[in-house]
Amino acid sequence: MTVINRIALATGLALASLITVPGSAHAQTISAQDAANFQQLDVNIYWYGPNNQNQRAIPGQANPYFNPSWPTILYIHGWQPGTTTALRRENFNRQAVNDNADVARAWLDRGWNVGIFYWNQLADEGEVKDAEAKIYTVNSSQFTNATRWRDSSGAYRPGPALTVTQQFVNAYRSAMAGYTGSEVRLAGHSLGAQLATLKTFRFGRAS
Predict the structure, then answer these.
(1) pTM across the whole model
(2) Total of domains in the chain
(3) pLDDT of residue 4
(4) What whole-number distance in Å separates Cα of residue 189 and Cα of residue 167?
């Protein structure tokens, strides 16, 4: 089911619409250059351009796929079991279903920024409940480190003492610093919808 929740814009940081989507983006094998990121924890927003080109948001650096005056849509993926060792993560190309459509193109052609918040290494758990718990807590009775993350060898490493929600909020604030656009929409699939809801709720209370 798709749910849209309209929220007023806050000064300096847009809060925007919340959209939960019934389908996900599409996982593809990443490039050898990007594969190095899987040796370290990479929890970040990546901005996308045409033909699935993308670049990580880096504080204080211009990004060719982000204009701070444009409206913005940001997608948050869900549970990602087994994707880290396969060096795969979601993007906007539908190559997996053989039509090669760039599902971000319609937004880009209308002058929107399009991005993905990646937390795939944290979402790579054998059971969805273990990935879900990281959205809400840094404590676990099952694991020594509740926010553990998986590297490309398949090993789990200790994660930061922050919930995934707080990591998302931090990444959003950093990527959207100086933003002057009129609207932001958050689109979340599965666990990503929970993240989008919590983030919007937090900013809504703050405003």
Answers:
(1) 0.84
(2) 1
(3) 34
(4) 18
